[in-house]
Structures are given as structure tokens and as C-alpha cells.
Amino acid sequence: HPDAGGGAGSPRQAVAGCRLAQVLTQYCVGANYGWLLAEGLFLHKLLVLAAFSGERCLPAFLLLGWGAPVLFVVPWVVARYLYENEGCWERNEKAAVWWIIRCPILMAVAVNFVVFVRIVRILVAKVRAHQVSRGDTRVR
């Protein structure tokens, strides 16, 4: 068969392209959560530190947003290739391999939730302090 050698348009190339799309999808999902966490941390630092300079922390935020996903997507690719190398990698039958991707994302969500709660507490405290300083009797 002419396509068996892996030429242009072969089934082997189609599977490789599909797997590449899966890898890029997982990286983009991870980057979404990484940037969400970076933005939460940035807002928290803005509220806590009066003299906070975002430019000084920019490299760390860039690393968190774009670099952190590589730390779990690459091991996921290796594990998929070694232990679950079937089809387009769209099915997740081995839970351990799937948790390589899901665990860091769940941790980012958990940390972001804690940051969110702290931000809300800071904002509520600032609003109360502002109202008390103005002698607003509605807060009492």
C-alpha cells in the first residue's frame, strides 16, 4: 500500500498530528490555570503591599503562566507514550496517567481559592476601616 511508509497524508501522520493537538490542548489548559493563579497572586500582592512593583515580579509570573504547564505536560506525554499509547490520546483509561495533568490543575484551583478568600477578607477589612474612619453608623 502506498501510504504504509508514512508519506504525506498517511494514517501515521494523522495520528501524530492529532496527538500533537492533544498535547497543545493540555498545555493551553494548564497555561490558563497558571495565568489565573498568577493574576490572583498579583492582585493579592497589590492589596497587601503598598509599594508593590508588578514589573519586579513579572518574570516569576511569566514563568508561572507559561513555564509551569511544561512541568506536567512533558511528563504526561512521556507517560502516555509509554503506558497508554493508543489512538489520538483523547481517551483517558489509565487514571494514574490522567492525574499527571489533573493534579497540578486542581492544586492551582485550590491555591487560587485560598488567595481569593484572602483577597475578599482584605477588601472587606479595608471597606470597614474606611467606613469607620468616616463615622458611618450603618456598619455598627
Automatic annotation (TrEMBL):
GO MF term list: G protein-coupled peptide receptor activity; gastric inhibitory peptide receptor activity; peptide hormone binding
Ranges of residues in domain G-protein coupled receptors family 2 profile: 1-140
UniProt xrefs under PANTHER family: GASTRIC INHIBITORY POLYPEPTIDE RECEPTOR, PDF RECEPTOR-LIKE PROTEIN-RELATED
Record gene name: Gipr
Organism this protein belongs to: Oceanites oceanicus
Transmembrane intervals: 33-53, 60-79, 99-124
A family per Pfam: 7tm_2
Keywords: Membrane, Transmembrane, Transmembrane helix
Lineage: Eukaryota, Metazoa, Chordata, Craniata, Vertebrata
InterPro entries for the chain: GPCR_2, GPCR_2-like_7TM, GPCR_2_secretin-like
Keyword Membrane: yes
GO CC, one annotated term: plasma membrane
UniProt-listed GO biological process terms: adenylate cyclase-modulating G protein-coupled receptor signaling pathway; cell surface receptor signaling pathway
Membrane topology reported for the UniProt record: Multi-pass membrane protein
Protein name: GIPR protein
Compartments it resides in: Membrane
